[in-house]
Amino acid sequence: MPASSHHTPTFSRRQFLATVGALWLGAGLGIHPTPAAAFDPQRLRQSMQQQYGQAGLSVLEEWFNLLQQLQNQDVQAKLRGVNDFFNRRIRWIDDIQVWGQEDYWATPLEAMGKGQGDCEDYSIAKYITLKQLGVTSQYLRMIYVRARIGRSQITQAHMVLGYYSSPDAEPLVLDNIVPSITPASQRTDLDPLFSFNSDGLWAGGSSESRADPLARLSRWRSVIERMQTQGFI
């Protein structure tokens, strides 16, 4: 979903359900993660240089500086720093305009290289960056929601990142629409559908994981594979 400073497209009910339904298409429940490679800054630099040239490489170096600046900060400072970094450096543009596809989940390198992306791209980039800063996946989930537009009853598929101080805590919401990090109870415009991270997938507000996200979310699996090639994991 777009940042508030940009045009807000609306989804028909059929488009919305198709978007959500497509996320659940996997190749079966027997898929398991491939062994992750180590975080490799030099390979990341090479990947960025090859795909996006010097402009992309400059943003990547800013990202490395962010990691260094926030490494020893407390969790709240990390959340604020990462949220602000991507909200300022990525301009909301619809996938069809950026990638020529209706729904493409970009890696952080692709989002930074393009300088453009949509709600999934913001959420994934923030998630991966916070994990690199030592905030483990047990505290983080990408949350797929139905977002109400203004005071109308029009809704749109949207994704945000949630930080949970404990498994059953109310999450803090990191979003590209509202720049401040707010408790979920204050985001009455968002209705959660499901959430996921590297370890599990939860329906609605459930506290029990129901599936392997790599098996059930084909686009997440694709992002993981590309991040491994690029040098993130």
UniProtKB/TrEMBL annotation:
Gene3D superfamilies per record: 3.10.620.30
Pfam entry (one): Peptidase_C93
InterPro entries the UniProt entry points to: TAT_signal, Transglutaminase-like_Cys_pept
Region forming the signal peptide: none
Protein name as it appears in the record: Transglutaminase-like cysteine peptidase
Organism whose genome encodes this protein: Vreelandella sedimenti
